[in-house]
Amino acid sequence: MDIVRIRNLKKYFGSGEHRVKALDGLSLSIEKGRFTVIVGASGSGKTTLLNTIGGLYRPTAGEILVDGVNLAELSEDQLTVFRRRRVGFVFQDYRLIPELTVRENILFPLALDDARVDEVFFGKLAGCLGLGGKLDAFPYRLSGGEQQCAAIARALITRPAIVLADEPTGSLDVKTGQNVMGLLKMTVEVFHQTLLVITHDLELAQMAESVVRLRDGKTEVQKCDLCVPGV
Ligand SMILES: Nc1ncnc2c1ncn2[C@@H]1O[C@H](COP(=O)(O)OP(=O)(O)O)[C@@H](O)[C@H]1O
Ligand SMILES: [Mg+2]
After folding, report:
1. Would you tell me the crossing angle of helices 144-156 and 102-112 to the nearest 10 degrees?
2. Which of 17, 77, 83, 205 would disulfide-bridge 37, Cβ 3.0–4.6 Å?
3. C-alpha 41 to ligand 1 mean position (Å)
4. Among the atoms of ligand 1, which is closest to the Cα of residue 23?
5. For 92-145, how does the pLDDT look when each residue is reduced to its tens digit (9 = 90+)?
C-alpha cells in the first residue's frame, strides 16, 4: 500500500520573472512501512517536496495523496489537524522547546491535541531512543545526538502515518549522525513507522530501503526492490 502518492506535482514560488519552479511535474509513490531517502543536489527541490507532503506548503498543481487524504481538498484548519495527527517532523536543528523537559517536549504534540498519553508506548519509545535517564532534563543538558533523539521521539509519539526528516544528521558529527540514522531505521523495524528522510550523505542513504533522487524539481530515479516507480 502507498502512503504517499504524487502525480505531476508542481510547486512554484514567486511570480513573473521571479518565479522559481521548485517542483516541476514530479511523480512519486512511497510505500507504507518503508524507509525511503531523498537525495539530490542543493536546490533540487528536496525540502519543498517534504514540506508539501507534510502539508506545510500547498501545491501549485498536481495530485498529492497522503494516507488517503487529498491535501488539495483540505481547508487551512483541516491542514493544521492533518499536520498534527498524521505527520511527524524532524528538523536539522531539532527545534525542541528549551523551557520544557525532554518528557514534556516528547509529549507536546499530544498536549496540543488534548490526547491521552499511552505510557507504555512512551516508555518503549524513550527506551529505544536511549532517553530513559534524560526525561526530566532540559534540552540544553543533552548532547546534539540526544536532542535529535528527543525530537525523533516527539515525531513518533502520535503514531503518525509518516515521519518526515529534513537532513536530520546535518548538525551532527559523522559517528553521531550514523547512530541517529541507525535509530531512525530502528523505528521502521520496531514501530513499523513509514519514514522519509532527506540526506546529502550518500553513505547514510545506503541504510534506506528505497532511494529517490531529485533533479530540477523532478524525480530522476526511484529505486527500490518492491515498489513500482511512480512515473
Ligand atoms: N520559500 C521559498 N521562496 C522562494 N523560493 C524558494 C523557497 N523555498 C525554496 N525555494 C527555491 O526552490 C528551489 C528548491 O529549493 P529546496 O526545496 O529548498 O531545495 P533543496 O532542499 O533540494 O536544497 C531552490 O531554487 C530554492 O531557492
Ligand atoms: Mg533542503
Report:
1. 30
2. 205
3. 12
4. 14
5. 999 999 999 999 999 999 999 999 999 999 999 999 999 999 999 999 999 999
